[in-house]
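A quick aside before the break. I want you to see a complete sequence-to-structure record at least once, exactly as it would be stored in a machine-readable document. Don't worry about memorizing anything.
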Amino acid sequence: MARDTLSSANRILQMKDEAAAGRQRVRAGFTDLCALTWLPQFFRECSEAYPLINLEITIDMSRNLYRMFEDGDLDIVVAPIDSALLKQKNHKFEVLRSVEIAFIGRSEFIRSPSKVPIHNLDKFNILVQGKESSYAQGINEWLSEKGATLVPTMIANNLVALVGLISAGYGIGVLPKRFVMNLSKPTDLVEIKTHPELPDMTYYLLTRDHGGNKAVDKLVEEISRAADFTTPFLH
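That is the input. The structure line, written in tokens, reads:
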């Protein structure tokens, strides 16, 4: 722990020295899962390390962030974007993290420890994110390939709203498993194990040719180090 703290302090001092050369503007877009996990601490550290860097943060759905990136309004995007689209456009990107995803509901919904065939979930109210979520659209396509047609009862483009309504027993939904299970307040939420299991959600780190902007390079490096989608910020 002491070694990690010293290493972090040395890194911040180094970044301050590098930032002292001049003020630069960096526009970065993140999803709400980032904002609910690692992003607040990351922003705090960057504010200390880069006092001369103006880091502008946008929180939005993945497709909106991608559109902003395409329009030239963002320099960095961290989101689960369709990899085929990224390759087609020849964007500069890397896989950041794989996030475990599962159907989540209240414990009383589970009648058996056995895995539930996905097509049997149609008896529940289904809560999902809307069409601006690339991953939600990908899950819908994946479910269709598996022969399961789950009609959403409610659509919400807000992760906190989904967790709250599912905690209240409104229905079940597809959520980041470890994030939900690590929430500090007991929620009675459990994973509904399914057959087949849901595919992981892949988060990508997307950048552009920024002409040697050292601030962008350093932020990309620090994002690669800091990203942790498993622990809620307020836990």
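Two observations worth writing down. The chain has two domains: 2-98+202-226, 101-195. The two ends are 20 Å apart (CA to CA). We'll return to this after the break.
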